[in-house]
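tl;dr need the bound structure. longer version: we got a ligand (magnesium ion) that a collaborator sent over and nobodys looked at where it sits. i said id run it. heres the input, straight from their email, havent touched it
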Amino acid sequence: MSEPLLEVRDLAKRFPIGGGFLSRRPAAELRAVDGVSFSIAEGETLGLVGESGCGKSTTGKMVMRLLAPTAGRIAYAGEDVAGMTDDRTRWFRQQVQMVFQDPFSSLNPRKTVAEIVGQPIALLGEDGGDRRRLRERVFELLDMVGLDPNHANRYPHQFSGGQRQRIGIARALAVRPKLIVLDEPVSALDLSIQAQIINLLTDLQREFGLSYLFISHDLNVVEYLSHRVAVMYLGKIVEAAPAEALFRAPKHPYTQALLSAVLSEDGGSAPMVLEGEIPSPMAVPSGCRFRTRCPRAEPRCAEVEPALEPRAATHRAACHFPVS
Ligand SMILES: Nc1ncnc2c1ncn2[C@@H]1O[C@H](COP(=O)(O)OP(=O)(O)OP(=O)(O)O)[C@@H](O)[C@H]1O
Ligand SMILES: [Mg+2]
């Protein structure tokens, strides 16, 4: 197999909390991302899924280089991003783009759609300073994402939520990226609109060979779009597998619980209830971080942290007692 487009190794982000100059509390540390490794091939979608606060967005921001990692390494096309020169960084910012969850706050309300979509092209000098060429490219992009190019002079508030997300996607596509980090891109949209945006993303991927890091807390959405899925819990990946295998036969009790909750929403069997609250990322449990809520936990789980290891032909799971 050829080299992956993106390779992430042992990535961590710890936020210092309190302990400031005037604070009486001792300094503490929040482990938002606690040693995460994954790769994404060209044309591939990796779904990153997990409950609120497990570190998905923080991971995405580190990949985008919006946030500096505390530890670990990110390589893009084989090149360590931390060691990139300004020139290489400019190239990286063209190659990797992001689409955000909220299509209402991520678009500048005072700019027209043509300005929003055209700005990254002009910034990178891709239009060669030619205004007519820029305008044509903007029309082409709007058409590509299913928007009427005649609406290029309208402002974001004149569009619906789904249309605004299409504008966000057009803006991301403008500089011909290869990898797009999609952070909950459909979570703010109605179900029927979600399906349209997911279909659009799938079509664009096929047409341009795009790679996606698709972040979502919604397993249904992830299943549609992802080739492979990584499940995160409290800052770590606890299971990773091709989407089909993961949904058919989860190995980690956490994945199993998440899936059973989804099935029961659809009117299937009763959900397997997860006991207790998610622990604080400022006090991650010893051993297996899921053990405090795990129906299969044994004393060993409090002592030894399970590594993310092969548990079946296609699965890796971080569990001492995986589901058979
Ligand atoms: N700048 C920050 N300073 C301190 N803590 C932070 C910061 N950013 C994120 N966190 C914490 O890090 C943890 C992971 O946050 P993150 O936003 O990555 O989660 P998430 O999986 O994207 O959640 P959601 O599904 O709600 O978007 C959370 O406990 C969050 O409160
Ligand atoms: Mg998030």
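gonna send this back to them w/ a short note. Residues 56-57 surround magnesium ion (ligand 2) (CB under 6 Å).
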